[in-house]
């Protein structure tokens, strides 16, 4: 179980809402670890808010503040209920990492890296009756309102987060299920001052960089998939080696059994041949000792001759 890297104070964004006026609030990030921590802020409504700064590095045991400015709105939402949400992502980085090195890939969980994610909901507060505004977490601002244009819509760098990240610990659910990077206040003011032609060139350059980043993201996904396939292949090879080793062991046992059976069969054949020879010898011995039954022929002839002689003598 990973421990919390950064503590966020406060846990909610409170804005004092006044029609056609901007409102800001400040959030403090406190690094509770001994590591350098990179953070990134996203929102479900990037056209409505600007964050300064929206990325940064927090030193160990140090703090960092970022300011969120809500652009001027014509009218409040029904019942002052705002469904907008913010996502603060934090992850440990190397000591030599600087803010320019921060990329979206740093906050990817595909490689098993720990990324702390905190969802923050937006709360709108009615202004007090006094003309002087002094809310705890909401700071009134009379900055010029943010004007939307088709070119600005193309400049927005949006990053989607799957719907599994909707909702926070307090059970607040996003109306769109998508967090996007918000523009900083400097970026908003700069857009109003850039000529259309130069803005088009910037948009084209941004599209090129965005396409390059998408290609890099696909390359990273392919490399990750290739790595996973290689790991699966290594596991399959190890399993096959284990099975082959088991088969070789069984084959060796079968060979030993066959060899033992052959020896027993050979011994049995020798025993059978020995028994047959003994039976032949016994049979030959019995044939040499035959018992004669009755009188011999010479005895019968002699007795017949004597009887004839006696008969002849008695007759005469």
From TrEMBL:
Span of domain MSP: 5-125
TM region positions: 293-314
Keywords: Coiled coil, Membrane, Transmembrane, Transmembrane helix
Cited InterPro entries: Ig-like_fold (IPR013783), MSP_dom (IPR000535), PapD-like_sf (IPR008962), VAP (IPR016763)
Annotated spans, Disordered: 142-183
Pfam annotation, one family: Motile_Sperm
Comp. bias regions, Polar residues: 157-167
A GO biological process held by the record: endoplasmic reticulum membrane organization
Entry's Gene Ontology cellular component terms: endoplasmic reticulum membrane; plasma membrane
Coiled coil, from the record: 230-278
Assigned protein family: Belongs to the VAMP-associated protein (VAP) (TC 9.B.17) family.
The name this protein goes by in its record: MSP domain-containing protein
Natural source organism: Anisodus acutangulus
Taxon lineage: Eukaryota, Viridiplantae, Streptophyta, Embryophyta, Tracheophyta
